[in-house]
Design brief:
Strand content: 35-45%
Number of helices: 7
Number of strands: 18
Number of domains: 2
Distance between the termini: 47 Å
Helix content: 10-25%
Structural class: alpha+beta
Largest sheet: 7 strands, antiparallel
Shape: globular
CATH topology of the largest domain: Rossmann fold
Radius of gyration: 24 Å
Length: about 350
């Protein structure tokens, strides 16, 4: 009986130890050597607007490429305040910046001869003035680093990206045209969506949309089309060409189709029906992961909102996805079983 109790206790404790010992890797912003003269701002505040605040992605450690979650030991808001102290000199103005982090994800892919590292940064800066917030600058970019051992170089360049973004903004005056409340900043996604026609209507314009921009504005590139439905699934689309003939268009050459009042997103794998749920456009399907920092529209899809890289061998898996309202990318929410 004592032996049985010990085994039961061991079975309970071991999983806890495994969770507690999950490998992590620290990320700390490297402080620049030069100060910014003539800064309009002296201090900085912080809002973490990421959907997943538990980590900043996944990197690979050691010869066996052990996965490690990126978790800063020093809280990120303290790092930003230290960075501000280093950047601003004695001539800086008295005002305050608000740094809103919307996405910061590191990821690595191991190739045959080298590694690729990615840093996806989406953030905004606002000028805090009493109870109002005025837009100063924003960044939405993917950084690519290639190296035999990429983690150190990735962190170094990611750190530089953050420091340069803030440093270049210190001398920028805020916009006088757009004034936000604190609640507006916290719910900036909703504020941005109110400016996009597709998020403010239940009657979508029929036609073919070649880009996210035309879809967001509900201005189809082709209105004369023939769409074929099979069991409520969109199977093929023809549009009227310049010579007046109806010609088939490939799904990879368009962004979305609206047919019989329903939205179908277009991917390399075909068409998937889209539903609007809680002010977001969601769909379930397959979509390729672009392993290229130049493919900006795939940035959100590449990292997903979980803040970590989905393995390369799951590139053809089926996921529940959300349309990124800013650039139209497909954000992977969770993997679902394929049937």
């Amino acid at each position: 009986m004592p032996c049985l109790k010990f085994l039961l206790l061991l079975g309970f404790v071991c999983p806890l130890i495994a969770v507690a010992q999950r490998t992590t890797r620290d990320f700390e912003i490297e402080m620049p050597e030069e100060k910014i003269s003539g800064s309009l701002y002296h201090s900085i505040e912080y809002i973490d607007a990421r959907a997943d605040t538990s980590n900043m992605g996944i990197v690979q450690l050691g010869a066996f490429n052990k996965k490690a979650l990126v978790v800063p030991l020093i809280p990120f808001d303290r790092q930003l305040k230290k960075l501000m102290d280093v950047l601003a000199d004695v001539s800086s103005g008295p005002d305050t910046l608000l740094f809103q982090l919307r996405q910061l994800s590191f990821a690595e892919i191991t190739g045959a001869m080298s590694e690729k590292g990615y840093c996806y940064l989406r953030a905004a800066l606002y000028h805090k003035k009493e109870d109002t917030y005025r837009f100063v600058d924003a960044i939405d970019t993917v950084l690519l680093v290639k190296s035999m051992d990429v983690t150190k170089a990735l962190f170094r360049k990611g750190s530089k990206l953050i420091a340069e973004f803030i440093g270049k903004s210190l001398s920028k005056p805020s916009s006088a045209e757009i004034v936000y409340s604190y609640a507006d900043v916290v719910h900036i996604d909703s504020v941005e969506k109110r400016k996009l026609k597709v998020y403010n209507t239940d009657a979508y314009t029929e036609g073919v949309y070649k880009t996210y921009e035309t879809f967001a504005n509900q201005a189809p590139d082709y209105v004369n089309m023939d769409a074929v439905l099979k069991n409520d699934d969109l199977s093929s689309v023809k549009v009227q060409s310049e010579n007046g003939k109806m010609e088939k268009i490939k799904s990879k050459d368009m962004y979305a189709v609206v047919h019989q009042g329903k939205i179908f997103v277009a991917t390399d794998y075909g068409y998937y029906p889209v539903e609007k749920i809680n002010d977001d456009f969601l769909f379930t399907g397959k979509a390729k992961v672009a392993a290229s920092a130049g493919d900006m529209i795939a940035a959100g899809m590449f990292f997903g909102i979980i803040g970590s890289l989905i393995a390369e061998n799951s590139a053809n898996a089926t996921f529940e996805m959300k349309i990124d309202h800013i650039n139209g990318g497909f954000i992977r929410l969770r993997e679902v079983e394929s049937y």
